[in-house]
Design goal:
About 30% of the residues lie in helices and about 25% in strands. The chain is of the alpha+beta class and about 290 residues long. The strands form 3 sheets. It has an 8-stranded mixed sheet, with helices on both faces. Helix 1 runs antiparallel to helix 2 (about 55-70) and helix 5 (about 200-210) runs parallel beside helix 6 (about 225-235).
Length: about 290
């Protein structure tokens, strides 16, 4: 019999959903952690080189089982299972293993991501790092939190040696894409380090925690974005398009291929200036 949600928690809206999502992400993380070094099956699922492993499917089964048990009338869009339509106006977005390409080569850089969107806007985001057993979560309007308390993100001060940032690009972006190549080259010239993590949600959690100064994405896919963008925004990070226009977490849940710059204060201004210095023939003005 499916569990029913209790009355709204006095701690605030979506507290029950947050509790369930955190528990689901951490349960999936236990599966990933315990089997990380074990033999796994790996298969290519797209011409771009994206892969899926048996660990993705095992972690996904854990998360989907919990969400469907507690919220049987909600829709779920999951990385491997696709759309499970519950017919409601609420949609859960699930990436059971963000960083699959890392795990496939034995690199311990991966997270579990879960977001809840209501009427198309993310209201809850959870990111769990299984190998460190760390969890970060945010509810719209209530801030971002981790094991040690509220997350405040980087202070926005530009380091004298240049910012350390993360970079991500969509799987549909080819190696010869002139805009991606030009933008990344400019960032590598103007920043101390540009991390290509192959796990975007890990980059978002690092930004929300303040361990990196910024995050730049080019035509990034939408499934990972809402949880990460909400976590960052609720920690005080500002999000912009490549042209400097305001980008809201709810915008990231609409459409495909979002490009963005995320940082605070001086670091944001600096990164936008770097982006603006890329020749426009290389960087389409519509992004």
């Amino acid at each position: 019999m499916a569990a029913s949600a209790p009355d709204p928690d006095p701690a605030g809206p979506y507290e029950y959903e947050r509790t369930v999502a955190v528990a689901a992400a951490e349960a999936a993380g236990t599966v990933l952690r315990e089997h990380f070094r074990a033999p796994m099956t790996v298969r290519t699922k797209s011409a771009s080189g994206d892969v899926v492993t048996s660990l993705d499917l095992a972690a996904e089964e854990v998360v989907l089982g919990r969400l469907r048990r507690h919220f049987p009338h909600d829709r779920i869009l999951s990385e491997e299972a696709g759309l499970l339509d519950g017919g409601g106006h609420r949609t859960w977005l699930v990436d059971p293993l963000d960083g699959t390409n890392n795990v496939a080569i034995g690199l311990p850089a991966c997270v579990v991501g879960i977001a809840l969107c209501v009427a198309g806007a993310p209201v809850l985001g959870v990111i769990h790092e299984p190998l460190t057993r760390s969890t970060w979560h945010a509810v719209s309007g209530r801030g971002a939190h981790g094991g040690s308390g509220p997350l405040t993100g980087p202070d926005g001060t530009l380091p004298a040696t240049g910012p350390v940032i993360a970079w991500t690009q969509g799987y549909a972006v080819g190696r010869a894409d002139a805009a991606a190549t030009g933008l990344r080259r400019q960032l590598e010239l103007g920043c101390r380090r540009v991390l290509q993590l192959w796990a975007p949600l890990l980059g978002w959690s690092m930004l929300a925690r303040g361990t990196i100064d910024g995050f730049v994405g080019y035509r990034a896919e939408g499934l990972d974005l809402p949880a990460g963008a909400l976590l960052a925004a609720e920690s005080g990070v500002r999000l912009r398009t490549l042209r400097g226009e305001v980008l809201r977490p709810e915008d990231t849940a609409q459409g495909e291929g979002h490009s963005f710059v995320a940082a605070r204060a001086d670091a944001l201004d600096y990164l936008l200036a770097q982006v603006d210095s890329v020749p426009r023939p290389e960087l389409p003005g519509s992004l």
